[in-house]
Each structure stands twice: as structure tokens, then as C-alpha cells.
Amino acid sequence: MDSFLIGAGSAIWLGILTSISPCPLATNIAAMSFIGRGVGSPRRVVLTGIFYMLGRMLAYAALASLLIASVLAAPEVSFFLEMNMNKVLGPLLIAVGLLLLDILALRFSTSLLPAGIQRRAERWGLLGSGLLGAAFAMSFCPVSAALYFGSLLPLAAAHGSRFALPSMYGIGTGLPVFGFAVLLALGAQWVSRAFNRLSQFEKWARRITGVVFIVVGLKLVLNYIFEVQI
Questions:
Q1: What is the pTM of this model?
Q2: How far from chain centre, in Å, is Cα 203?
Q3: Hey, which residues does 111 pair with through a beta bridge?
Q4: Closest C-alpha to 81, from 92, 71, 90
Q5: What are phi and psi of 131, to 5 degrees?
Q6: Burial of 187 (0-12, 13-18, 19+ CB in 10 A)
Q7: pLDDT tens digits, one per residue of 192-201
Q8: Distance (Å, rounded) from C-alpha 218 to C-alpha 206?
Q9: Which long-range contacts (CB under 8 A, 24 or more apart) does 82-90 make?
Q10: SS3 assignment, position 140
Q11: Could you report the per-residue pLDDT of 85-96, keeping only the tens digit for each?
């Protein structure tokens, strides 16, 4: 139980860090403009933020379930991961840490969903905000891809959690947008202040997380690849 709680906390933190990183933050600003159209109705703004967060949660959980089930369905791959998960996880965490520290530079952006989603979302009301959350969840750039594929999926696979941990990650990615939706409901003037503070927090949070990933990755490499116990 304690191990799962640690995994759940880690998944939520990875989701929050994903959401406030520069590239995903740009999509969340777009989401805020979508949510802010109902600023005259505080209740609707909050509900839109909730549906947006649920859309992200379901998208990440569905993709993780599909990928983990596909990998584990292959006996050879499943056996390899079972025997070598820590050996694979060490270098993977180091690579993700280097990416978070901007030492390893990657440039790409991709979306797994078709164009025109935002136009459809505008016509579908609250359900549309959920659709928009799912669409933005499937738009990956280096940081979000590294945190999801390089950190969240191995974490979920290690805990045998195809749905719960990915769902918590999705909730984590939606929490900042939901928070801004609440601020919009209270008064739009709060949002700009929050964005400025969030940008400053993100830099330090990303660097600290990157250092932790590298330290843990080095420990796993030493323990399981070089068999040096520290």
C-alpha cells in the first residue's frame, strides 16, 4: 500500500510538472482561453475546467492501458522487462533528467489526434472541453513525451497499474488548468499573477526533478548494471 501511495504521488507530480513545462503550458494557455469564454458564469468556468481535466485523465489512461497491455501481451518482452526493468530504468531516468535540465536537447512536437478538434469542442459545450483536454493530452513535445513515456509508463508497469497511475498522472496534468479555472471564476485579474509565479516555480521544479532523476538513475545503473552496492 505504501509503495502504491508513493507511486500515486509520483504520478501526480509528474503530471503537474508536465502541465507547467513550457511546451504543454502553451496548450494550457489555449485551454484557458477556451474556458475563459464563460467567465461571466463562474460555475460554468469551474465545470469546464473539471471536464477538461477528466478528458486529459481518460486520454492518458487509455493510451497507457493500450501500450502496457500490448507490451505485456508479448511473452518475450514481458519476461525481458520483468528480469531487466531496473537495468532499463536507470539509463532511462538519466536521459529524462538530462532532458529536464536542458543538457540533452530534443526538438519535436506531435499530436495523435486529428486537426479541427478545437472547432468541434467549441460546439459541444462541456463535453467539448473534455474533448479538448484529450486532444491536448495527445499532443507531445520533448518534455511531455519524456515524462509520460520515459517516467510514467515504466512507473505504471512496475506497479502493475494500467489505469490508476496513468489516471492520476492525467489528473496532475489538469490540476493547474483547473486551478486557473477557479481563479477565473474568482476574478480574471488573479490569472496573470498566477501565471508569472507558475513560470518561476516551473524552472526550479523541473531542475530539482531532473537532478533527482539523474541521482536515482545513477544508483540503479551502479546497482543493477555494474553490481556496485551503495
A1: 0.88
A2: 16
A3: 139
A4: 71
A5: -60, -40
A6: exposed
A7: 677 778 878 8
A8: 18
A9: 85/154, 85/157, 85/158, 86/220, 86/223, 86/224, 87/220, 87/224, 87/225, 88/154, 89/154, 89/158, 89/217, 89/220, 90/217, 90/218, 90/219, 90/220, 90/221, 90/224, 90/225
A10: strand
A11: 889 999 999 999
CA distance 40 to 74: 52
**Other CB atoms within 10 Å distance of the CB of residue 172:** 26
- Helix, strand, coil abundance in the chain, percent, nearest 5: 85, 0, 15
Q: Does the structure show a pLDDT above 70 at 171?
A: yes
User: What's the confidence (pLDDT) of residue 163?
Assistant: 93
Number of H helices, E strands in the chain: 10, 2
Identify the top-confidence range among 47-51, 57-61, 181-185: 57-61
The one-letter amino acid at 125: G
Half-sphere CA count of 25, side-chain side, radius 13 A = 14
Sign of the four-CA dihedral 167, 170, 175, 177: negative
When the pLDDT of each residue in the chain is averaged and rounded to a whole number, the result is 84
